[in-house]
Specification:
The complex is a heterotrimer of chains A (303), B (276) and C (375). With 276 residues, chain B is an all-alpha fold. Chain B contains 11 helices and 1 strand. The longest helix of chain B is centred in the first third of the chain and has 34 residues. Classes of the chains: A mainly alpha (303), B mainly alpha (276), C alpha+beta (375). Chains in contact: A-B, A-C, B-C.
Chain lengths: 303, 276, 375
């Protein structure tokens, strides 16, 4: 690596393009939004930057605090569920015969490569009242009923009179399912990377010293794969927090997340200053999550 | 003994592990498979299977708005990939080669488009173009310029990451050998560095292409009624009228992305074989 | 823990009994129908080249690999399929496997915490174990602050503190440098005598096995070739493989001409004088036998020996390997025979050696110096 002063002409030649683009078409737009967050509406479309903090204050309204809270809760729940589901999957892939590993990994990543919109839409067909999931449950219900009749218990109607389909769509459950569905690969990959590096003789040593499988898992595998867990958690939490499509397509009227509210401000409500303030609050939350991760990583002394 | 007993570390052979793995894959793939399957279902309400048909594909093909949106998406993807690859390569070179004050801050700024929530970026682009008074009603393809600019902005840092990873493996002695043989700095760049970077450039370009093709949120904020892209069109179809045509259109998009990603992976695999 | 002195010889049943043990991976048998038993208080070694199955056998003893066939009895109980965490056996891994995220004391106490018990008691026993391996006071250190040798001691303490019936050690000295290795050899033997627990070690280094073990099992390609105390293994190998694996040996092919009264007469092409060896095991007359002669047991001289007779041959010195304390002379005795290796102490300065390259020399050995092998 050379010092910039030594290759000055090359330095400017190479660096100018990207820097200019980043500045003009990224940083400037962000700055404009930041300024707007301190603006007031004047009439239908005009705004004047007055340095007011009203927009931020409005975000602290119980109505909007509720949305923030819900978004954090959704993102948190998604992270936890992804971890619980993703860990066994990553474990299974790491300990699979070497021939199978790339195949299994590819199978996990492949859905990620399809369009987010389409993946979310596909879930609708599965989750709705006359959809795949309910069909399967209904089938199970019918088979169980048949079994019960065979056992002579048919007349008791133990499973109810008719099959009651689960309301799996247009509510909070659907949003969480959708978020997990979309972000699961992001949890599996870092976990796989961390578990792959784990020295297996450490698990064997724990077993040899008398630990049960579960105890060996908790006292050796989990602590030593913590960096992977933290990476995965961040990779899931942050995108989930700023998610727009999933709550939009799968959620009900009270499943709004921050991104949906922001979109409304800019598209239909035309309250750009407020939308700008909300955007920046979302960004600050994102940075806070990243900072937390860096703090945790440093605190563990680079294990 | 009929089959070898399961050793303590052979987790993948345990039944409950296999069930979990299977259940997860079913969970991941069932919706997509259902969607693709029902694009061929001869039934409007796509619940029960009624017969195989390709009429929805024909209808999708006949839907001029859909075709126009598809063409827009391709054009945007191609142009933004071109620009993003160049910018990304320059960024990677810049960060790999030079040491300069505030470099850490610069790298942080370059990472922002990757880290920032998509909606914040979409909103920023919308505000920017509105404030600057970006001309509307331009002839095609210039009408797509706003979208293209937005796509480049969020994808070139990804390209930079990919190319930088490739550059990290560069053996400086190759450049030194060329210089020793009399090549000027410019020639060293073209004859030695660019060929080395090529796999990274290709991988980065494919990444930028898929990101652009698939993007919804940012495009949603920068497109207008006469500059609709494929995902945006599909979104309105999904929101307002769920027909198998949507399934057909979605299947096409899935197929396209899978083929492109497959190509990227295959190229990378071939490269790794060559590197050995 | 018992006081010093060599451990009591086998009192009662063996502590480990292995019968018909096999481990197959597809068609390949890593361990093939092995039978052996280990007595209480022994320092037992599994010796063999890499890939011979010794580590697989050890892991099956630990319960980390499960056998395809056969039985393992530990202290009278069938433990073939018992999982590792329920066996009264502990292992010191080749990589030591010290938990990087725990302190030294927590590492040593890990197994004790699983068994339950008062915290102070666990602490006391762990510190006691650390004293035993000469790491007293290192309790609060972390593994990444320790050298390789120190981490090995932690692994030892961790395994011993649970007072297992058998301690298994996988290539314990292979990762240490030469000087440390020598020191550790003595320490391990002393440790075993102090603690009185049966040790089973796996090694590919025959000098390690010879110096530490009370009995050695030599393995090759999944099978046990011979089980014997070190001296017996060295002086009376059961096969050419064992003879060649342990130390250096000259193998000379010949035909058994006579075999009776504890004496064998061998006719070896290339050696004109008759070869007679004293041996209890008598091979059949007419079969092929191999004379196994250790280099240090052959006398090399410039003058022919006084009495003419048996067990001698003459040749020309083709190569000399200087090893400081000894020199190995490679002597050509016949065009169709391999060079005979004779090792002789350098009793005087090299410049005053009696013979050198291309000198004619006379080799001789006594009838109790070698063995005749039939396989």
């Amino acid at each position: 690596m050379e010092d910039w002063r030594r290759g000055r002409s090359a330095f400017w030649l190479i660096g100018l393009g990207p820097t200019f683009w980043l500045a003009l078409f990224f940083l400037v737009p962000l700055a404009i939004v930041w300024l707007y967050s301190f603006a007031e509406l004047r009439g239908l479309v005009d705004m004047e930057v007055t340095g007011t903090l009203d927009n931020y204050a409005r975000a602290l309204d119980p109505l909007y605090l509720d949305v923030f809270g819900k978004s954090l809760a959704f993102a948190g729940l998604t992270t936890v569920v992804s971890l619980v589901v993703g860990f066994p999957v990553a474990l299974a892939i790491v300990f699979a015969p070497p021939r199978w590993r790339p195949v299994l990994l590819l199978l996990v990543i492949l859905p990620f490569w399809t369009n987010l919109l389409i993946r979310t839409y596909a879930l609708i067909a599965v989750l709705r009242v006359r959809g795949f999931a309910n069909f399967t449950l209904e089938w199970i219900w019918e088979q169980s009923n048949t079994l019960l009749s065979l056992l002579g218990l048919g007349s008791y109607q133990l499973l109810g009179e008719r099959f009651e389909p689960l309301e799996l769509l247009y509510n909070n459950t659907a949003v969480v399912i959708g978020l997990v569905y979309v972000h699961l690969p992001f949890m599996v990959l870092p976990l796989y990377a961390a578990l792959e590096k784990l020295d297996r003789s450490l698990i064997e040593a724990a077993l040899d010293l008398g630990a049960s499988q579960w105890r060996a898992f908790l006292t050796v595998v989990v602590p030593l794969s913590m960096p992977g867990i933290v990476s995965g958690a961040i990779l899931v939490f942050i995108p989930a927090l700023g998610s727009f499509l999933t709550p939009d397509l799968l959620g009900g009227t009270d499943s709004q997340m921050i991104a949906n509210v922001i979109e409304r401000q800019f598209k239909s409500a035309n309250d750009w200053p407020f939308g700008a303030a909300l955007s920046f609050l979302l960004m600050y939350l994102t940075f806070a999550a990243l900072a937390l991760r860096a703090f945790v990583a440093r605190g563990r002394g680079g294990l | 003994m009929a089959r070898a007993p399961i050793g303590p570390l052979e987790y993948t052979r345990r039944t409950w592990m296999r069930l979990t793995l299977l259940a997860t894959f079913v969970f991941l793939y069932a919706p997509i498979v259902t969607l693709v399957a029902f694009s061929f279902n001869d039934s409007r309400r796509n619940i029960v299977w009624r017969g195989f048909t390709t009429k929805y594909y024909e209808r999708a093909l006949g839907n001029s708005e859909l075709i126009e949106a598809f063409v827009n998406s391709l054009t945007i993807a191609l142009l933004s990939t071109l620009i993003a690859t160049v910018l990304g390569a320059l960024t990677a070179l810049f960060l790999w080669r030079f040491r300069f004050p505030f470099k850490a801050g610069y790298e942080g700024a370059m990472a922002l488009p990757i880290v920032i929530p998509e909606i914040c970026m979409g909103v920023a682009m919308l505000a920017f173009f509105a404030k600057v008074g970006w001309p509307s009603g331009l002839p095609w393809p210039f009408s797509l310029s706003a979208i293209i600019i937005a796509h480049v902005s969020f994808s070139f840092p990804f390209v930079a990451v990919v190319v930088r990873a490739r550059l990290a493996g560069f053996n400086q002695e190759l450049a030194e050998a060329a210089q020793d043989l009399g090549a000027s700095e410019w020639r060293v760049f073209w004859d030695v560095m660019v060929p080395f970077m090529r796999p990274g450039l290709v991988a980065g370009a494919l990444l930028a292409f898929t990101l652009s093709l698939d993007d919804f949120v940012i495009t949603f904020f920068t497109s207008g009624p006469d500059t609709v892209t494929f995902p945006v069109k599909v979104y309105s179809m999904v929101r307002f009228s769920v027909t198998p045509e949507v399934n057909a259109a979605s299947t096409v998009l899935i197929a396209l992305t899978v083929v492109l990603t497959g190509a990227a992976l295959w190229l990378q695999f071939r490269q790794e074989k060559k590197d050995r | 823990m018992s006081t010093s002195g060599p451990p009591a010889a086998a009192d009662g049943a063996p502590i480990i009994e292995i019968s018909g043990l096999s481990k197959r991976f597809g068609d390949f048998a890593a361990v093939d129908k092995v039978n052996l038993s280990v007595e209480r208080g022994e320092f037992f070694a599994l010796l063999g080249p890499s890939g011979c199955g010794k580590t697989t056998l050890l892991r099956m003893l630990a319960g980390l690999d499960l056998p395809s066939d056969g039985r393992i009895r530990i202290d009278g109980q069938d433990m073939s399929l018992v999982p590792a965490n329920r066996r009264p056996v502990n292992m010191v891994f080749q990589s030591y496997a010290v938990f990087p995220h725990m302190s030294v004391l927590d590492n040593v106490g890990y197994g004790l915490r699983i068994d339950g018990g008062a915290r102070d008691e666990i602490r006391r026993r762990a510190e006691e174990a650390l004293e035993l391996v000469k790491l007293g006071g290192y309790g609060s250190r972390r593994p990444d602050q320790l050298s390789g040798g120190q981490r090995q001691r932690v692994a030892l303490a961790r395994a011993l503190v649970k007072r297992p019936k058998v301690l298994l050690l996988d290539e314990p000295l292979s990762a240490l440098d030469a000087k440390l290795r020598e020191a550790m050899r003595l320490e391990l033997v002393n440790l075993q005598e102090t603690v009185g627990i049966t040790f089973v070690i796996v090694t590919h280094d025959q000098s390690e096995a010879l110096s530490m073990a009370t009995r050695i099992a030599v393995m090759n390609a999944g099978e046990v070739q011979q089980i014997a105390p070190p001296a017996e293994l060295y002086e009376f190998p059961a096969s050419r493989f064992v003879a060649d694996f342990i130390g250096s040996v000259n193998l000379i092919e010949g035909r058994v001409e006579a075999a009776e009264n504890g004496r064998i007469r061998l006719a070896c092409p290339g050696i004109t004088a008759p070869v007679e060896i004293e041996q209890d095991r008598l091979p059949a007359v007419g079969t092929t036998g191999w004379l196994a002669l250790r280099p240090e047991k052959i006398d090399i001289a410039k003058e022919p020996p006084a009495e003419v007779g048996l067990n001698r041959v003459s040749g020309v010195v083709e190569e000399i390997t200087y090893l400081g304390e000894t020199s190995v002379y490679h002597v050509r005795v016949a065009p169709n025979l391999p060079l005979i290796k004779v090792s002789s102490a350098n009793l005087d300065r090299v410049t005053r050696r009696a013979f050198t390259w291309e000198d004619p020399v006379h080799l001789s050995w006594t009838s109790s110096c070698g063995v005749v092998l039939d396989r």
